[in-house]
Amino acid sequence: MQTILLIVFYLIKLYASVVLLRFFMQYFRVDFYNPFAQTIVQLTNPTLKPLRRVIPGYRGLDIASLVLAFLLTTVMLSLAFNLWGLFTLTNLPKLAIIFVLQFFYTLLNLFFYLLIGRIIVSFIMMAAGSYQANPFASMLVQLTQPFMTPFQRIIPPIGMLDLSPILVFLLIRLTQEGLQYVASYIFPGLGLL
Known about the structure:
Elements lengths: L1 H26 L7 H20 L8 H22 L7 H34 L9 H20 L9 H23 L7
C-alpha cells in the first residue's frame, strides 16, 4: 500500500510541476505553437478548463493554474502526512503553513531543473548554432531568459560561456534552505519534499 501511495505522491508532484510550467509559459509569453508547449497545454487542459470557469484570470495571469498547482501540492503533502501519521486536527494550522512553503519550494525546484535543462541543451546546441533550430531548446530559453537577464547584467556572458546560472543556482539553493529552516522550525523533524 505504501508503494502505491508513493507512486501517486510522485505523479501528483510531477503534474503540479507541469501545471506550474503552464503558468510560466503564459506569463513569459512562450510560443504556444511550439510542439513541446502544445504537449503541456494538452496535458493540463482537462483539469484547467473546468477550473477556469470558476477562477477567472487576473491581468493576463492564469490564476486557475496557480490554484490548481497549490491544490495538487496540498493533496501531495496530505498523502505524505497521512502516511507518516501526522495529519491530525491539532497539526492542521502548522501543516497549512507547510503547504504554502512546499508550494514555493516546488516552484524553485521547477526553475532549478529548467536551468539545468537550458545548460545541457546549450552545450548540445552549440554545434547547431541556434536555439531556434530545436523547439525544446527554444522553449527552455523563452522560459528561463526573463529570470536570467538580471543575473546576466551582474555577470555578463564571456563569449559563449555564461556564468550567471551560478548566481541563480546559489539564490535558489539559499532560498530553499531558508524554506527548509522555516518548515523545520514550525514542525520540528519535518522537511519539505
